[in-house]
Design brief:
The complex is a heterodimer of chains A (169) and B (274). Chain A has 169 residues and is an all-alpha fold. Helices cover 75% and strands 0% of the residues of chain A. Chain A is globular. Chain B has four helices and twelve strands. Chain B has helices at 2-24, 28-48, 50-53, 62-99; strands at residues 110-118, 126-129, 142-145, 149-157, 162-166, 173-178, 185-192, 195-202, 212-215, 227-235, 242-249, 258-262. The longest helix of chain B has 38 residues, at 62-99. Classes of the chains: A mainly alpha (169), B alpha+beta (274). At the A-B interface, helix 1, helix 3, helix 4 and helix 6 of A face helix 1, helix 2 and strand 7 of B.
């Protein structure tokens, strides 16, 4: 019974996260609209719990977000799952000291990998002659996203730690 | 290392299965149900937050308000005169076409839709609409605002929702024509924030600030004559075969809440006079 309740709560949380991402993007002004709330929430879950379940969280949330994407189905989901998986391994092997700068580095690095993989797959799966955005535009858009999302995750991590008064590992 | 490789392969396989199930259609009913639920709530919040996205205009004094009111009255009178002239020209045009036995133009069929979300990707400039394939909306159809202002094209149409790629999107390329003496043609490209650019304009043609840009009709699904914007600046370099122009879109693309999708004939057609 407890397991079923947890599963229902997890499903509702996933849908709520996607809804919040959709709504937040619409309300915020440019350039704050570049903040990737969903990806930031997944990374925050990863750094707070250290659990591999973050990968499945990325799978579920991006799977729902794919329903609204203008890109071919699966590109976002695959890119986010692989980047969160690599971040999980990096968290276990490299960033063993979970200080705020480690969190910032994981957020930025994870998002950078996500976007590189996403752009590469998008480029490969588009038909020849498809108008692809310029590198300058992509760099500016991704740069803003990385800066805002990493800041959001870091500040949230510090706030949650202060609130829970958990000692750093 | 081997266990990590296994994990990566396992997760990639799970993603691949989800993609295959999507394209086969097994997940269609679950996707539609989920989307319907999210659409309703997202649409409600999008409408409720409209006040934050559209701040009201304020006036420092009564005199300023009166001046703005008088200015608005003058603009309305001018617009009415232009409209009457356009109606006269349209009537004459119709008579001439009939005289010359041209094919009769059919009014376009429009499907109205509400915007329930936007820009879920940082590199994309898109709108999510509340209507989809059930209302005759298909990928490639043109989307307009008000009386014929071109916004973008439908890139994805599901049962009960669709996605519009706006002209300001980095992947948007729309063939256009300039309402100048030479009737120059070019390509409207996005990817420059909220503004757009007109590229591939022949170097020898004269483009002036203030010239109107309209769709040329060269792309399937987009009728000729839909207003895109006006020229804000011209970039011309010697020894280059083409010149470019920066455009101001005819409407604020981030303030759109109601749109119309052209679901009818895609040949050059007249918009109904409103």
């Amino acid at each position: 019974m407890k397991r079923i309740a947890r599963l229902i709560l997890a499903c509702l949380s996933v849908v709520a996260m996607v809804f919040f991402h959709l709504v937040f993007v619409s309300v915020l002004p440019v350039p704050l609209r570049s903040l990737n709330v969903l990806f930031g929430a997944v990374i925050l879950y990863l750094v707070l719990t250290g659990k591999g379940g973050a990968v499945w969280l990325a799978f579920a949330t991006n799977g729902i977000l794919e329903l609204y994407a203008s890109t071919p189905f699966g590109i976002q989901m695959f890119s986010s799952v692989i980047s969160v998986l690599i971040s999980f391994w990096a968290l276990r092997e490299l960033f063993i000291n979970s200080s705020w700068y480690a969190v910032a580095a994981i957020s930025a690095g994870s998002l950078a990998f996500y976007r590189i993989l996403y752009t590469l797959i998008l480029f490969l799966f588009n038909p020849p002659g498809y108008p692809f955005p310029s590198l300058r535009f992509l760099a500016a858009a991704y740069g803003w996203e990385m800066a805002l999302t990493a800041s959001f995750v870091t500040v949230s991590y510090i706030a949650i730690h202060a609130a829970l008064r958990r000692p750093e590992r | 290392m081997r266990s990590r490789l296994k994990t990566a392969i396992g997760i990639s396989f799970a993603v691949l299965v989800a993609i295959v199930l999507h394209f086969v259609g097994v997940l269609a009913s679950a996707e539609n149900a989920l989307r319907s639920g999210l659409n309703v709530s997202a649409g409600f919040v999008f409408r409720a937050t409209k006040a934050f996205r559209e701040p009201r205009e304020s006036f420092a004094s009564t005199a300023e308000l009166r001046a703005a009111y008088e200015g608005a009255k003058v603009e309305i009178a001018r617009a009415r005169a232009v409209r009457e002239f356009c109606e006269l020209v349209a009537e004459e045009n119709a008579e001439l076409r009939e005289t010359l036995s041209f094919v009769k133009r059919q009014p376009l069929q429009l499907a109205g839709a509400e915007v329930i979300g936007r820009d879920i990707e940082p590199i994309g400039s898109t709108l999510i609409l509340s209507r989809g394939a059930r209302d005759g909306i298909r990928a490639g159809q043109a989307v307009i605002a008000r009386e014929g202002i071109f916004l973008g094209r439908i890139v994805r149409a599901e049962e009960d929702m669709s996605v519009v790629r706006l002209v300001s999107d980095g992947a948007s390329r729309i063939p256009a024509a300039i309402m100048n003496r030479d009737r120059s043609i070019g390509v409207v490209e996005g990817g420059y924030g909220i503004s757009v650019r007109l590229t591939l304009i022949p170097q020898n043609e004269i483009v002036l600030v203030g010239d109107r840009i309209v769709t040329s009709g060269a792309m399937s699904g987009i009728p000729r004559g839909l207003i895109i914007g006006t020229v804000e600046a011209v970039e011309k370099e010697p020894y280059q075969p083409f010149q470019r122009a920066a455009l101001t879109p005819a409407v604020r693309l981030d303030k759109i809440t109601i749109v119309s999708v052209i679901v009818g004939p895609s040949t050059t057609a007249a918009l109904p006079l409103l």
